Amino acid sequence: MQGNGGWGFATAAIAKAVYRTVPEARRGEGAGNDALPLRREPAFVREAVRGGWRTDDLGCEGGCQVFAAGSAAMLLSFDIAVEAVAEHDDWHTHEHMPERLRIPGFLRGSRWLARSGAPRYLVLYEVASIDVLASGPYLARLNDPSPWTVRMMKHYVGMRRALCNVVAGAGSGCGGVAMLARFAPVDGAASDLNEWVERAVLPTLPGRRGLASAHLLVSTLAGQMTMEQRIRGKDDDLHSRCV
C-alpha cells in the first residue's frame, strides 16, 4: 500500500498473519487459534534513487501509476551491516539500480527506507512479466557481479525476496510512504483468499485518508541460486502473498 502516511496504522509496516479460513476473516473473527500473530514493524519512506524511474517506458508525465506497465514485481527486504550503510546507499544508487534497469523487461525500481526499526530497506522492482525474473540477461547479471557488488553483498543481513505476479490492484499514484502486509493461506484456501482480498479488501483501501493505492502480489517463481546469493548467503522467502 502506498500513500502519504496519513493512515492510523502506518507504523504496522509488515503484518504477518495466516488466516485459518477465509470465511473467518470475512466475519472479522480474526485469524484462528493457530495463526501467526500480527507483528508491528516500521513504515517505509521512498528514497530518491538515480535511475529509479523509467519514464521512457511508463509515460509518467501525466502522473505516476504503480504497476502501470508491468504484470510482475520483485520485492526485497533486508538490513545492511551498520558500518556499510553509507557505502551501500552510494553503491545502490549509482551502480546497482541503474544496472538492474538496463536489463530488458525491468521497468522501474524504487528503494524505501524504514522510519525506524528493522528491516531498514524495502526495494521494489516492477517488471514486464514474471518471465523477466528468470531470463538469461537477468541471471547472467546475477552470476557476474561487479567488484563493488561483490564487496557490498558481504554486508547484507536477513535478505528476504519474493518474485511475484501482480494479481490485482486498486487506486493509482505513487505515495511517499509504503506499508507491506505479508500473509499466506492455509492449504486449499488460496483461491478463496485471493478473491476475498481482491473483491472485499483492495477496493476499500484507496478511499481511506492518506492511501493512494494498494496491490495484491502473489509469489509465483522460486529464485535461483546465483553468485550474488552465494556471497551474501541464501535468501529467505517472503510470505506467499503481499499487499
Description:
The protein has 243 residues and is an alpha+beta fold. The protein has a single domain, classed as 2-Layer Sandwich (Alpha-Beta Plaits). It has seven helices and twelve strands. Strands 1-8-3-5-6-4-7-10 form an eight-stranded antiparallel barrel. A hairpin with a 6-residue loop joins strand 5 (106-114) and strand 6. The model is unreliable at 5-41 and 50-64 (pLDDT under 50).
Question: Keywords, please?
Answer:
single chain; alpha+beta; Alpha-Beta Plaits; eight-stranded antiparallel β-barrel; 24% helix; globular
Name the shape in a single word: globular
**Spatial separation of the terminal alpha carbons:** 6 Å
Total number of β-strand segments?
Answer: 12
Largest sheet: 8 strands, antiparallel, barrel
The level of helicity is 10-25%
Q: Tell me the β content.
A: 25-35%
Gyration radius (Cα, Å) is: 18 Å
Order of helices and strands: EEHEHEHEEHHEEEHEHEE
Low-confidence stretches: 5-41, 50-64
Which structural class do you get from the secondary structure elements? alpha+beta
Strand order of the largest sheet: 1-8-3-5-6-4-7-10
Which CATH class is shown?
Answer: Alpha Beta
Task: Give me the CATH fold name.
Answer: Alpha-Beta Plaits
What is the residue-mean pLDDT, rounded to a whole number? 77
Number of domains: 1
In short:
With 243 residues, this protein is of the alpha+beta class. It has seven helices and twelve strands.
